[in-house]
């Protein structure tokens, strides 16, 4: 007697999840919500997947399933379990589906799809989260002539205690016929976006940090100058411009004028930022007007594509297709209150120390990624002199200069006095 192999193939291995997505998709289409595209993509991927999935978390392997949608499925599962009083809660979805199929084979009846269960409607918050997630991953393409270029002005430039500055900035830009908007920026004071008719926004590769000479002196004294340069370097925008305004005759700004000039020279040479000096606030706004006109002329016929910061490439004015960051991505990545790694916090700590440049700080964290690593290295030193000079021979920058005993001792005194 020959034995025939019975092959059982699940027609809809994730029918319950499909029914939930269909319900949410129907609701999104009725409201004409942007989340319908993400839900449709996820539903198609789920229908094509041949194996049962036991949770929303497992759905993350499929196209279209972001963290928000996975969490929604898990929440729906929790609610359905609470309603099903008589069902064995310890049975997996896989075991339930197999049992249903085997019973169907025995009875030789056409398998019917499980009835749709009542699902919880998406809340406004959940709907918004889905839309935001879709917007983050959506590929944006802007063809030449399909977008406007707009100057974005940070709210700090047009608000605060000094209403005169508010009126001047707005007044100058309006009198110069510059198209601009005021928003909260998490890095820089001015930048330019390209916006298409659908409201998509890409950031052009130019960002401006404006400093009046007295503000420059103040930021150097309290350490903000180094931190701001570090954050500008990390934001991913190719061209960084320091727009520096004179403050009267620059005689009473808080630091000697030569010191300020040296700081700007270092920023130009070592950080490779562009430096633009202006006589007053109006001249600064005229410079921004000129930049706006130039950028409109250069980019108006380009094809602009959205891309992640890791995929950004330097480009030349002759290129036809250009990859740019989404404005929302830049805003979120550069937020001052964003979570930092221990390594990044360590760098920011080091930058607060006198005479410690970003290049020196980065060289130190390459060898000692965290303060704890540095403390452990100090503990292995036999004498205090050895520990004080531990960092003296670390080389930094393109010229690979040694850190020096003075810097090494400053760092040693700072961390040992704080941690002991």
TrEMBL record:
<dbReference type="InterPro" id="IPR006166">
    <property type="entry name" value="ERCC4_domain"/>
</dbReference>
<dbReference type="InterPro" id="IPR042530">
    <property type="entry name" value="EME1/EME2_C"/>
</dbReference>
<keyword id="KW-0234">DNA repair</keyword>
<feature type="domain" description="ERCC4">
    <location>
        <begin position="150"/>
        <end position="248"/>
    </location>
</feature>
<dbReference type="GO" id="GO:0031573">
    <property type="term" value="P:mitotic intra-S DNA damage checkpoint signaling"/>
</dbReference>
<keyword id="KW-0255">Endonuclease</keyword>
<dbReference type="GO" id="GO:0048257">
    <property type="term" value="F:3'-flap endonuclease activity"/>
</dbReference>
<dbReference type="GO" id="GO:0000727">
    <property type="term" value="P:double-strand break repair via break-induced replication"/>
</dbReference>
<keyword id="KW-0233">DNA recombination</keyword>
<comment type="subunit">
    <text>Interacts with EME1.</text>
</comment>
<keyword id="KW-0539">Nucleus</keyword>
<keyword id="KW-0479">Metal-binding</keyword>
<dbReference type="Pfam" id="PF14716">
    <property type="entry name" value="HHH_8"/>
</dbReference>
<dbReference type="InterPro" id="IPR010996">
    <property type="entry name" value="HHH_MUS81"/>
</dbReference>
<comment type="similarity">
    <text>Belongs to the XPF family.</text>
</comment>
<protein>
    <recommendedName>
        <fullName>Crossover junction endonuclease MUS81</fullName>
        <ecNumber>3.1.22.-</ecNumber>
    </recommendedName>
</protein>
<keyword id="KW-0460">Magnesium</keyword>
<dbReference type="GO" id="GO:0000712">
    <property type="term" value="P:resolution of meiotic recombination intermediates"/>
</dbReference>
<dbReference type="GO" id="GO:0048476">
    <property type="term" value="C:Holliday junction resolvase complex"/>
</dbReference>
<keyword id="KW-0378">Hydrolase</keyword>
<dbReference type="Pfam" id="PF21292">
    <property type="entry name" value="EME1-MUS81_C"/>
</dbReference>
<dbReference type="GO" id="GO:0005634">
    <property type="term" value="C:nucleus"/>
</dbReference>
<dbReference type="GO" id="GO:0008821">
    <property type="term" value="F:crossover junction DNA endonuclease activity"/>
</dbReference>
<dbReference type="GO" id="GO:0046872">
    <property type="term" value="F:metal ion binding"/>
</dbReference>
<dbReference type="InterPro" id="IPR027421">
    <property type="entry name" value="DNA_pol_lamdba_lyase_dom_sf"/>
</dbReference>
<dbReference type="GO" id="GO:0003677">
    <property type="term" value="F:DNA binding"/>
</dbReference>
<keyword id="KW-0540">Nuclease</keyword>
<dbReference type="InterPro" id="IPR011335">
    <property type="entry name" value="Restrct_endonuc-II-like"/>
</dbReference>
<dbReference type="InterPro" id="IPR047416">
    <property type="entry name" value="XPF_nuclease_Mus81"/>
</dbReference>
<dbReference type="GO" id="GO:0031297">
    <property type="term" value="P:replication fork processing"/>
</dbReference>
<dbReference type="Pfam" id="PF02732">
    <property type="entry name" value="ERCC4"/>
</dbReference>
<dbReference type="InterPro" id="IPR033309">
    <property type="entry name" value="Mus81"/>
</dbReference>
<comment type="function">
    <text>Interacts with EME1 to form a DNA structure-specific endonuclease with substrate preference for branched DNA structures with a 5'-end at the branch nick. Typical substrates include 3'-flap structures, D-loops, replication forks and nicked Holliday junctions. May be required in mitosis for the processing of stalled or collapsed replication fork intermediates. May be required in meiosis for the repair of meiosis-specific double strand breaks subsequent to single-end invasion (SEI).</text>
</comment>
<dbReference type="GO" id="GO:0006308">
    <property type="term" value="P:DNA catabolic process"/>
</dbReference>
<keyword id="KW-0227">DNA damage</keyword>
């Amino acid at each position: 007697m020959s034995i025939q192999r019975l092959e059982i193939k699940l027609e809809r291995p994730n029918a319950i999840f499909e029914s939930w997505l269909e319900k949410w998709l129907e609701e999104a289409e009725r409201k004409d919500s942007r989340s319908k595209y993400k839900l449709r993509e996820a539903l198609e991927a789920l229908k094509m997947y041949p194996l049962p999935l036991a949770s929303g978390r497992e759905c993350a392997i499929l196209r279209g399933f972001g963290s928000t949608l996975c969490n929604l499925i898990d929440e729906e599962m929790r609610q359905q379990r609470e309603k099903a009083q008589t069902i064995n809660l310890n049975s997996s979805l896989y075991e339930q589906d197999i049992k249903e199929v085997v019973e169907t084979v025995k009875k030789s009846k056409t398998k019917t799809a499980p009835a749709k269960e009542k699902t919880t409607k998406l809340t406004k918050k959940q709907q918004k989260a889905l839309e935001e997630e879709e917007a983050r991953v959506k590929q944006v393409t802007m063809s030449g002539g399909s977008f406007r270029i707009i100057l974005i002005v940070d709210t700090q430039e047009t608000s605060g205690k000094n209403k005169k500055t508010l009126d001047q900035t707005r007044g100058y830009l309006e009198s110069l016929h510059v198209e601009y908007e005021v928003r909260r920026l998490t890095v820089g004071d001015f930048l330019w976006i390209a916006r298409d008719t659908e409201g998509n926004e890409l950031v052009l590769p130019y960002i401006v940090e404006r400093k009046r000479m007295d503000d420059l002196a103040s930021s150097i004294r309290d350490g903000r100058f180094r931190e701001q340069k570090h954050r500008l370097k990390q934001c991913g925008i190719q061209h960084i411009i320091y727009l520096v305004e004179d403050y009267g005759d620059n005689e009473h700004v808080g630091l000697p004028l030569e010191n300020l000039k040296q700081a700007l020279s270092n920023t130009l040479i070592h950080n490779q930022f562009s430096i633009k000096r202006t006589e007053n606030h109006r001249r600064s706004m005229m410079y921004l007007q000129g930049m706006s006109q130039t950028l409109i002329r250069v980019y108006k016929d380009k094809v602009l594509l959205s891309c992640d910061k890791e995929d950004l490439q330097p480009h030349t004015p002759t290129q036809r297709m250009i990859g740019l960051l989404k404005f929302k991505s830049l805003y979120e990545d550069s937020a001052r209150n964003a979570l930092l790694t221990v390594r990044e916090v360590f760098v920011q700590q080091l930058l607060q120390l006198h005479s410690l440049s970003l290049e020196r700080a980065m060289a130190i964290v390459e060898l000692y990624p965290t303060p704890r690593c540095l403390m452990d290295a100090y503990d292995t030193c036999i004498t205090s002199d050895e520990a004080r000079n531990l960092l003296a021979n670390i080389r930094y920058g393109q010229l690979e200069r040694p850190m020096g005993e003075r810097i090494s001792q400053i760092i040693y005194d700072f961390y040992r006095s704080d941690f002991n």
